[in-house]
Amino acid sequence: MKWVLLLLLVTALLGCNNENPNKVVFFVGGAPNELEAWESLIKDFERDSSISVELLKQPSNTDQQRQSLIVSLDAKLKNPDVFLMDVAWVGLFAHSGWLEPLRNIDLSPYFEKVVQQVDTYKGNLIALPIYMDGGLLYFDRDLLEKYHGGLPPETWSDLLNDSLEVQSQIRPGHPAFYGFVWQGAEYEGLICNFLEFAGTQGGFIFKGDRVLLDTAENRWAVQFMHDLIWKYKVSPPNTYTEMREEQTRLYFQAGHALFERNWPYAWNLHQGEGSEVKDKTGIAPLPAPPSGESVSTLGGWHIAISKYSDVKEQALAFVKYVTSYKGQKKMVLLLGWNPGRQDLYHDREVLKKMPFLMELKDIFLHARARPVVPYYPQISDIAQRWINAALAGRYTPEEALQQAEKEIAALLSRYAIIEGSMPP
Ligand code: GLC
Questions:
Q1: What local confidence, expressed as pLDDT, does residue 42 receive?
Q2: Could you tell me if 72 and 56 lie in one domain?
Q3: Which of 39, 72, 158, 410 lies 20 to 30 Å from 221, alpha-carbon distance?
């Protein structure tokens, strides 16, 4: 009996050591079509190299992805070897020392500002942009034309009036119909949306290096977001409990809404088979105040190699493949991304498929970044909690913003004490 147990143990240990030394574990999240596209790109890479890649599929929610990566990296686990990071947490990961510097990369095809501001840490290149995001307004062109002359709204009050009008016409025969869907659940997307509403009034989270949330501009934004749901009832009641990117995307795609705020990825899916809004979706910049400017939050995802990977050379080969012209082009054609490489914005085939790509480039080149500090995810967690509570009607915008500001200030002073300085 003892021998049998010993044999089993040895076999198990041998099994553990028998991991393929030439395998890269890649952690990536997204909508189902994004994961399918990754699978296909991985197949190309495996065919062109002798390296195999295991895909660790994740949900699209950025906060969930961040949490699970933090668990592995904090425990110094050998895998995942390669992962995508939301622009919102690159700073935290770099500051934590979890990213392996990327060497021998030709940076000329990339947007210099993005590489400098996001992908460089203490003089080292620690990541590369895969795609850029900026918040956009999608609209149902047919409905807007039928009931409202067809032009997308330029101001928030236009958006509200169009929503009220079209909704009142459609609702009687279509009770699930709403004017405007956006991301209001308690997660990172809520802050992206809040910064767009607030940004058009001049609001933000910081003034210089001081946290400043409880301002008239920010209060207006939270009040307006609240009122869209409760007072005007043009956004569904589950906006603050459930609406994330995918929920809004599916809602609009099912023909249940006139307007949708989402990232560029939604376009291809709206144009896909089975979509109720195929060939009748329009894209416009988000509304602004009269004579003010539209604000779009800068989003996007960046690829990096874990400091703890033990197949760094293979991981780098994979990163180079994924970021190559060929690799990126394939993903852009499949998914309609705004690629991280500038040269693809001139590619004929890409432009044919996405004629509005140049306009999108303009939107994200002017998009507003979230605070670039390593503690941003914690700042955001606090702001999410309070703003979401105001959307739920549990606090007034003023109370919520004051509380969030207090908690964030306390967090920052804790870090200032630990590190002897404010975050950069
Ligand atoms: C998108 C953006 C990302 C943002 C997230 C919020 O994935 O690319 O930057 O943080 O949405 O949900």
A1: 98
A2: yes
A3: 410
